[in-house]
Design brief:
Elements: H1 3-20, E1 22-23, H2 31-41, E2 49-56, E3 62-67, H3 73-84, E4 92-94, E5 97-99, E6 101-108, E7 114-115, H4 127-139, E8 149-158, E9 164-169, H5 175-187, E10 194-196, E11 199-212
Parallel strand pairs: 7-11
Antiparallel strand pairs: 1-4, 2-3, 2-6, 4-5, 8-9, 8-11, 10-11
Helix pairs in contact: 4-5
């Protein structure tokens, strides 16, 4: 066997050995236990479809939480509270050493269909002018000709009872603006839900929201 081939094999075995000694952080009791914990702590919120990014230190403590898909202000607060109250994880290890690591945890409680197009779209009471006025008032915009006027695009779900949930920001939006938008959505009156085959259904709704970039 050529020396070059021997070196390649040794490098591969070294890499494979190092890789095989990496163990990800685990929730005590495994994934089923984690799912039960999430469902128990977030029981009031049955329409969730989001994800968490957790930084878990070398002692197993959750030290940083980031919600990857914001929902609404109230739900975000509940998710953050739940994550910060989590019991310690079994920390990740590398070559036998305890290390800090990141885990991304999906939270999906409702697998029902959310439509992108329906026979009768959801609508805001009073129409487009009313929803524009609602956001202007709640975003503090009183001069539409402001030079610093910007727009963020959001997508949320209008569920069968007219409530909104599962808000996603589709373009880069400052964190402070995201918080204001989510607070506004939390105050929003019920929508007229969408219909398909004469049946109330969940529907995605996408729209721009104006804000002032100071």
């Amino acid at each position: 066997m050529k020396i070059r081939n021997i070196i390649f094999i040794l490098l591969f075995l070294s890499f494979h050995s190092s890789f095989s000694q990496l163990a990800l952080a685990q929730f005590e009791g495994g994934d089923d236990s984690l799912k039960s914990y999430l469902e128990r702590k977030l029981k009031p919120y049955r329409e969730l479809n989001t994800a968490l990014q957790l930084r878990i230190d070398s002692t197993g403590k959750v030290v940083e939480v980031d919600i990857l898909n914001s929902t609404d202000y109230e739900v975000d607060e509940a998710i953050l509270k739940m994550a910060n109250e989590m019991p310690k994880w079994i920390p990740a290890t590398q070559d036998g050493q305890l290390i800090s690591s990141i885990r991304i945890i999906p939270i999906q409680f409702d697998a029902s269909v959310v439509y992108t197009a329906v026979e009768e779209n959801p609508s805001f009471p009073g129409g487009n002018e009313a929803i524009d006025a609602f956001f202007k008032e709640n975003m503090g915009i009183f001069e539409s000709y402001s030079k610093n006027l910007r727009s963020c695009f959001i997508r949320f779900t209008v569920v069968e009872n007219g409530k909104t949930c599962c808000t996603l920001f589709l373009n880069e939006t400052p964190k402070v603006v995201q918080e204001k938008v989510l607070k506004a959505l939390n105050k929003m009156p019920l929508w007229n839900p969408g219909k398909q085959n004469n049946r109330l259904v969940k529907v995605f709704f996408t729209m721009p929201v104006k804000y002032i970039d100071y």
